[in-house]
Each structure stands twice: as structure tokens, then as C-alpha cells.
Design goal:
2 domains; 8 helices
Length: 151
């Protein structure tokens, strides 16, 4: 049976193979060239215009901050993306997506650790797995202080 990380790695390899094939089909040398090109800049701006809220910006799918990035959920239509192929994400959630393969709620065990450290329920209820994973690591290394220490 394949471990979860092996499944994620296999999925990533498949996605990158699709991306490479599509880049060849549209005549672009690399994904970074694609992201720096005029087509992607126009597509990103069109997405923003169609999906911007009253504030004039697009919000991250997982939080209320401005989406700094459009994450490709599929590369099959690279160069002719549908809105469904794009996921607006803030930088933190984009990094979490690439590190963990998705953005998921914190686990029950993670939420309990946050409670023991004195974090507010409002914070805990919106905590994601990746953010909590990083925060618990930083607490353990003494890089941040928990709210309980300020009490």
C-alpha cells in the first residue's frame, strides 16, 4: 500500500509531466517563462477583474486576505485556462499547498496543543494543518512565545 506522501509525490510527478507536455505544445520553454509572459499576465488580470470584491482585489480561497497568487489546479489547459483551473491563494496558503499538497483544517491533536498554549478559540477554529504544523514547531524550538506566557 502506498503511503500518503508517496501518493502525493506520484501525483506531483504526473502533474509536472502534464505541465511539461503542455508547455511544449504551446511553444514555451519553461513554466517560469510562461508565468513571466504576456498571456499569463493578461489572464491573471482578467481573473482579477471578474472575481474582485468591493475592495478591488480577489480574496484567498481559505482566508480573508488578498490573494497574491493564482495557483494552477490543473495544467491540461495551460495557456487557455478556465477559471476552474485557478485557485486564488495568499502567499501563506500557496506555500502550504505546495508543501502539503492541499490546505486542510488543523487536526484535533493540533487544536488541542494550541489550546494548551493559550490560543483563542477564534484562532484555533480557523487554523490550518500547515500553519499549525509550522507554529507548533516554532513553539517547540522557542522561536515564538505562546499566549499563555504573556498571561
Amino acid at each position: 500500500m502506498m503511503h500518503k506522501s508517496e501518493k502525493r509525490d506520484a501525483y506531483r510527478r504526473m502533474m509536472y509531466a502534464v505541465r511539461t507536455k503542455r508547455l511544449i505544445e504551446i511553444g514555451i520553454g519553461s513554466y517560469s517563462d510562461y508565468l513571466a509572459g504576456a498571456w499569463w499576465k493578461e489572464r491573471r488580470e482578467r481573473y482579477r477583474q471578474e472575481h474582485a470584491g468591493a475592495c478591488g482585489s480577489v480574496q484567498c480561497r481559505y482566508c480573508e486576505t488578498r490573494a497574491a497568487d493564482l495557483h494552477h489546479t490543473s495544467y491540461q489547459r495551460l495557456g487557455a485556462e478556465d477559471d476552474a483551473d485557478l485557485l486564488p491563494l495568499c502567499r501563506e496558503h500557496h506555500a502550504e499547498w505546495h508543501t502539503f499538497g492541499s490546505v486542510q483544517p488543523a487536526t484535533a491533536a493540533q487544536r488541542e496543543i494550541l489550546r494548551r498554549h493559550g490560543y483563542a478559540e477564534a484562532f484555533i477554529s480557523s487554523a490550518t494543518f500547515g500553519r499549525t504544523f509550522n507554529l507548533i514547531g516554532a513553539l517547540g524550538r522557542g522561536e515564538v512565545r505562546s499566549p499563555r506566557e504573556f498571561g
